[in-house]
Amino acid sequence: MAPRSSEMCAEWARRVHEAQMKRNPEEWEAAKKRIESARDHERQSRKCKAAKNHSILSRALAAEGLRQMSSAPASEHMAVQARWKSAQEHSTRHVSEFYEQMEAPRAPEVLDDEEDGAMAEAADLMGADVVALSALGNEGLEDGARPSSGGVDALLAQLRSEPADANECAAKFMLYEGYAQEVEQMRGTLMTFHEETCSTVPESVAADMGKRVKGIDSTEAMGIPDEAREWFVFHMMKQAERNNVSMARILEDFQKKLEFLAKNDQQECPVCLEPFEAEGEHAAATLGCCHKVCKECWETWSQLMHGRAFCPLCRHEEFLGEVAARLSESGMSG
Questions:
Q1: Residues contacting residue 207 through CB under 8 Å, at least 6 positions apart
Q2: Residues facing 287 on adjacent strands
Q3: What are the CA-CA distances from residue 146 to residues 142, 150, 206, 278, 319 (Å)?
Q4: Tens digit of pLDDT for each residue in 133-183?
Q5: Is the dihedral of CA 117, 119, 122, 128 positive or negative?
Q6: Is 225 helix (H, G, I), strand (E, B) or coil?
């Protein structure tokens, strides 16, 4: 960002001071409720997005593992399985660390999306092209989308017959087993997320969430043919794949609902009290604590604090004191 002049910073401090002083205690308490509701929904939507991205990446890695096995001799299949395991464990650690960061105190920098980095790192560990890996993970996730030729379904087809080679059989079974465990853990994450979230959203939204979550454990969702002629791993892997796709879609829907609620809970910057805009200086910036302020306020505040800015909402009284002090220094407090 381009540095603001001392006059611009002083004028900002004056506007913010005047806006904050006009609020009576009742208005501030009402505003705090909206702000904290928006913060909760923002944190939930980011956790939801992280879970969805992990689900997509797990799907992509399993499909990429099968793709590499399909083009490699049986003697190399265990090496492929080892690469898959390393990449999958990295993804699991990444999302676990993100959840912990969302719950712990964080530096007040503006949050960035992190899924691109996770996909690139996993692709590197897997020895795969990141664009192709992302395409595998996202294939067919939109309702009504048809699977592509050479995509996930085509890769799963190689599991129809049990391999005669012991290395190939063991590698493919271990890949299935690991992927199935990831999907089961994802199911637990989704259930926990639903339980934590349903009390914070409107009843109609909670009811819809509950209906979709229950569908995961339906007889149809968990069923496997009784008289199957194919290798049992084929049906188990297809079932894990279907369940994972279902959960990714549910998480995507939850994420959009929570983002909508966060946006509607808080429609103005709580610092300058100006309405948020889609872009420009009054676009919302989400801080590490998940509070939102406008871009102008955060950048000006950061400049005034020489890069040591703290969240104006988490430490509101201290923030007001700092603004008043800066205003007094500028000679504009009168």
A1: none
A2: 110
A3: 9, 12, 30, 34, 53
A4: 999 999 988 755 555 666 899 999 999 999 999 999 999 999 999 999 999
A5: negative
A6: coil
For 137-144, the CB contacts below 8 A with 24+ separation are 137/56, 137/57, 137/59, 137/60, 137/63, 138/56, 138/60, 140/245, 141/56, 141/245, 141/248, 141/249, 141/252, 143/249
pLDDT beneath 70: ranges in the chain: 1, 104-116, 143-150, 217-228, 331-334
Q: Could you identify the residue written with the tokens 């007889």?
A: 219
Per residue in 268-316, pLDDT (tens digit) is: 999 999 999 999 999 999 888 889 999 999 999 999 998 889 999 999 9
Q: Which helix (H) or strand (E) holds 175?
A: helix 166-197
pLDDT computed for residue 212 by the predictor:
87
Q: How far apart are CA 252 and CA 190, in angstroms?
A: 12
269-276: long-range contacts (C-beta < 8 A, 24 or more apart)? Answer: 269/293, 269/294, 269/297, 270/31, 270/35, 270/312, 270/313, 271/16, 271/20, 271/297, 271/301, 271/312, 272/12, 272/15, 272/16, 272/19, 272/296, 272/297, 273/19, 273/20
Instruction: Locate 63 and state its tokens.
Output: 């499909």
